[in-house]
Design a protein that fits this description.
Elements lengths: L1 H7 L2 H10 L4 E4 L5 E4 L3 H9 L7 E3 L2 E8 L2 E8 L7 E3 L9 H13 L31 E5 L4 E6 L2 E2 L3 H8 L2
Antiparallel strand pairs: 1-2, 3-6, 4-5, 7-8, 8-9
Helix pairs in contact: 2-3
Length: 174
Amino acid sequence: MFDKVEELGSARQALCWLHEYNLDLPVKQFNGDTAWRRPSYSAIHRIIENPVYGGAYAYGKTAVAAGYSAEGVSVKIRRKTRNEWLALKPNTHDGYVSWNRFEAIRTMVSSNVPTGRHHGAPKHGDALLAALIRCKRCGRKLTLRYSGMKHHIQPRLDGQWRSSLHRLRRIACR
């Protein structure tokens, strides 16, 4: 899994590759048996984020929160952010990948998450379908910027402005 995510550059592209070749992932059932299921994006993302695959020990990754309603008390378990974990000790056992490689892949995947104000569905303009075009390698959406008096269109990928779509494809899809 880690090899394919690193090769393709994103969890989404690894998921597409697994689906294309009809490959399943193992899932541990409640009775302890292992079943093979069609992978989901969340399953791949959980693998990439789980430090045990990088040979680390982690403790205190979840918290229990009590909720009160008319029906009574309900208990919800939520995941903590990484800086809230009680313990994270790298290199405590042999992992599927080295700790440094695990961290590099995890960082790469987390940097693929759109956080800017220019992500999402396009709203208006000559290029309404531009967000449907994605980089073949990383899966990021192509967005556009209108500039100048004549509203010249400039393609954008990963926060970098490019002068032409041809140059954009050459850089983005290496």
